[in-house]
Design brief:
CATH architecture of one domain: Distorted Sandwich
Number of strands: 27
Structural class: alpha+beta
CATH class of one domain: Mainly Beta
Number of helices: 16
Organism: Ulvibacterium marinum
Pfam families: Glyco_hydro_65m (PF03632), Glyco_hydro_65N (PF03636)
Protein name: Glycoside hydrolase family 65 protein
Keywords: Hydrolase, Signal
Shape: globular
Radius of gyration: 26 Å
Distance between the termini: 43 Å
GO molecular function, one term: hydrolase activity, hydrolyzing O-glycosyl compounds
């Protein structure tokens, strides 16, 4: 009963705190814990529920082979965000603290942990993945002694065992009277592809940190090349508030010729920049991101869930990076950190509405790898460009060879081109369309002409594919594959006309004759041999949204009612999101809201609501699911639509559970749409 009472108290306190502004998610100690990542598009820092412990750091777009015969896998970074704190010779652990609380402030991307150590001190620390200094993190710490105490703080660089040849050092750099103590480790990634350099140091806010004689004395301890430590001790009187920080930076040869030295520079910048200035710039950049926001009145939990989804898409991306977003973002190494259709179909549309800079990075990621896609098409006997099902830094196919998706799930090539045309339709950036957009869309269209097979009756089939429903491999005329190919061919024709080029007449010919199969009653048939089997995720229904290939209401409803009951519980969350958008666009708010909640509520993991991929899985954070639920709000309830005239609002609808919905900062004009 005590556990249940404590849990109910935690929920009540959480609700009260969240009531303040709809930006705060907090939790006390819970039995089953899933952390929430703080990230800046380059690194992701995942805290634990133990004092001063961090589970992992993920490095975006830094890959090495997972094994000698394996595929690429995103790197687990060397961890600079773990500390030890001792008071009067006793190390602080989860066993000797009380009043434990963790708070995520989504507005400033700050993750704060607070607790009391016996009757001796109250301690608070906040973790930032600095948005302004993008390869670095910052742990800001405050101690308030309730008795006179002796404090020992130890900052650590922990190197995962998969790294090879680590070299751990401590140096005090000096320029005139300015001294800069640097704890540092340099190592090779698991198969030697990259050198990774990490640096860290302490910062004392209340003194002139550039003068060595005013600092506490630092002690270096190298437990091993994999465990590098730096510590100091300080006596504190009762009530003598003490603030300091621990900052680290991590760089690799993916981005820098000399990652060791560059990591030092980032740490020195953080060391010698006043805390207020450093953190104010981080907060300003997050304030700029939140110019694109979704505001729900009348349902606090829905507001928090939607904001948390948007927070993650912002945290996992950068408008200045030309990088994409993996299904699990920067929260883990799941799916090897590869890039799938998850970006173009699920995460890209909300970001295109609310932040065109990030959207441009996502499409530029693909155009930067166009040459590799052209090589792949040639290698498989096709023309044009053929994008990999799983992509990494190289742009080559990164799917494990045993997975049929890597060889046969070809709709990704159309998905990329569709995202390109939608980026142009929203931004009207004709220069980008000429230089990056149309060249890729042309190659994609040529691919689909070469990929389609002409039937005796003059129609075209696309044979031997894995569709969005991956439960059905190696089928012919998969509905979504065919529908996306039609759409990509039509969009390429429009793009050619827009840039003043002559479109290939075969694009129109093939697009107009690709088969969309039907059952006798008019329901769209998922593939040539489909006979009512269970499906992994929505496939046919994607022809209605987002493709608009199937748009007569009778067929739309038939397809909804036929396929929704067939969606497997272990399937990813996005299928429910598709159904929800379609019901909202049909004016059925009740069904839309039911499916909106069903698209993510069973996937939430305590205590912060991190999303797992499916109701039956435990692999948060699933950024793809976040993209799906946000599309329900924007394109379903909000009524937004991407057209050749740009973003328009058509028939918004409000569920009875909400008082109003405000979509803020939409499109290049930063428009506000309100539904009441």
């Amino acid at each position: 009963m005590k556990t249940k009472t404590a849990f109910l108290c935690m929920l009540f306190c959480f609700a009260l705190k969240a009531q303040e502004n709809g930006w705060i998610i907090s939790s006390g100690k819970v039995e089953k814990y899933t952390g929430i990542v703080t990230a800046n598009g380059r690194i992701g820092i995942l805290p634990e529920d133990k004092p001063f412990k961090t589970k992992s750091i993920i490095l975006n777009n830094v890959y090495d082979k997972e094994s000698p015969l394996g595929v690429s896998k995103i790197l687990l970074g060397m961890n600079f965000a773990n500390l030890d704190l001792e008071i009067d010779g006793e190390k602080i652990t989860e066993e000797n603290i009380s009043d434990f609380e963790q708070v995520l402030d989504m507005k400033t991307a700050a993750f704060t942990t607070s607790f009391s150590f016996k009757d001796k001190a109250k301690i608070t620390y906040t973790i930032y993945a600095l948005r302004n200094v993008q390869y670095s993190g910052y742990v800001d710490i405050k101690l308030i002694p309730t008795k006179s105490i002796s404090v020992k703080a130890t900052g650590k660089i922990s190197t995962p065992e998969e790294y090879v040849e680590p070299l751990s050092t401590f140096r005090v750099l000096q320029d005139l009277e300015t001294t800069m103590p640097i704890l540092q480790t340099v190592a090779k990634s698991r198969m030697g592809k990259h050198t990774v350099g990490i640096s860290a140091t302490f910062i004392w806010h209340a003194i002139n940190s550039t003068r060595e004689h005013q600092r506490p004395q630092l002690v270096h301890e190298k437990v091993s090349e994999y465990d590098n430590r730096l510590s100091f001790e300080k006596e504190l009187k009762k009530g003598e508030e003490f603030e300091f920080a621990w900052t680290g930076a991590e760089c690799s040869t993916q981005d820098f010729e000399d990652p060791q030295t560059e990591s030092e520079r980032f740490v020195i910048f953080n060391l010698l920049t006043p805390r207020e200035d450093l953190l104010d710039q981080h907060k300003k950049l997050w304030a700029d991101l939140w110019e694109g926001d979704i505001i729900i009145e009348g349902n606090l939990q829905d507001q928090l869930d939607v904001r948390l989804a948007l927070y993650h898409l912002y945290a996992f991306s950068r408008g200045d990076s030309n990088l994409s977003i993996a299904p699990m973002g920067l929260s883990s190494q799941n799916y090897n950190g590869h890039i799938f259709w998850d970006t173009e179909l699920w995460m890209f549309p909300p970001l295109l509405m609310l932040n065109q800079d990030i959207a441009r990075s996502l499409v530029n990621y693909r155009s930067d790898r166009l040459d590799k896609a052209k090589e792949k098409a040639i290698n498989f006997g096709y023309k044009g460009a053929m994008f990999p099902w799983e992509s990494d830094d190289t742009g080559e196919e990164a799917t494990p060879a045993w997975a049929l998706t890597g060889t046969f799930e070809h709709h990704i090539t159309a998905d990329v081109s569709i995202a390109f045309w939608n980026y142009y339709r929203v931004t009207k950036n004709l220069e980008w369309l000429r230089e990056k957009g149309y060249p890729l869309m042309k190659e994609v269209a040529d691919y689909w002409v070469s990929r389609a097979a002409k039937n005796e009756d003059g129609s075209y089939s696309i044979k031997n594919v894995v569709g969005a429903n991956e439960f059905a491999p190696n089928v012919d005329d998969n509905a979504f594959t065919n529908g996306s190919a039609i759409t990509a061919l039509e969009f390429a024709t429009l793009a050619a006309n827009k840039v003043g080029e002559k479109p290939n007449p075969e694009w129109v010919e093939v697009a107009s004759k690709i088969r969309i199969l039907k059952f006798p009653d008019g329901t769209t048939k998922e593939h040539a041999t489909y006979n009512g089997e269970r499906i992994k995720q929505a496939d046919v229904n994607l022809l209605t949204y987002p493709l608009d290939v199937v748009n007569d209401e009778t067929t739309v409803l038939k397809d909804l009612k036929y396929y929704e009951p067939k969606l497997a519980e272990e399937g990813p969350a996005m299928g429910q999101s598709v159904f929800a958008v379609i019901y909202a666009r049909l004016g059925n708010a009740k069904e839309a809201y039911r499916l909106f909640r069903r698209s993510y509520e069973p996937n939430k993991r305590p205590p912060f609501g991190a999303l797992a991929e499916a109701a039956t899985s435990d692999n948060p954070y699933f950024a793809t699911g976040a993209g799906g639920m946000l599309q329900v709000v924007l394109f379903g309830f909000g009524g937004l639509d991407i057209t050749d005239e740009g973003i328009v609002q058509k028939n918004p609808i409000l569920p009875k559970e909400w008082k109003s919905l405000t979509l803020k900062g939409v499109g290049p004009g930063r428009k506000t749409y309100k539904v009441e």
